[in-house]
Amino acid sequence: MKYSEFLFSQLFMIHVTYNETEYQDLEYDLIFPEVLKHRALFLESHFNVESKSEYDCIVDYLTSNIQTPES
Hints:
Radius of gyration: 12 Å
Number of helices: 3
Number of strands: 0
Low-confidence stretches: none
Order of helices and strands: HHH
Mean pLDDT: 93
């Protein structure tokens, strides 16, 4: 695993743990494909830019795209 993959997965799990999201109650084996899907989406997104740190880019992506489920 490369550092950028590790960083994305850790920030994803922290985001899910501390925010009410659709992923909050998923088991690890079910959330893993979602992490991979969102990493691929992040890499192709406008959030992935050279002008900011990778950490900040990922946090911005997660904040904007992993939101509270609708009631």
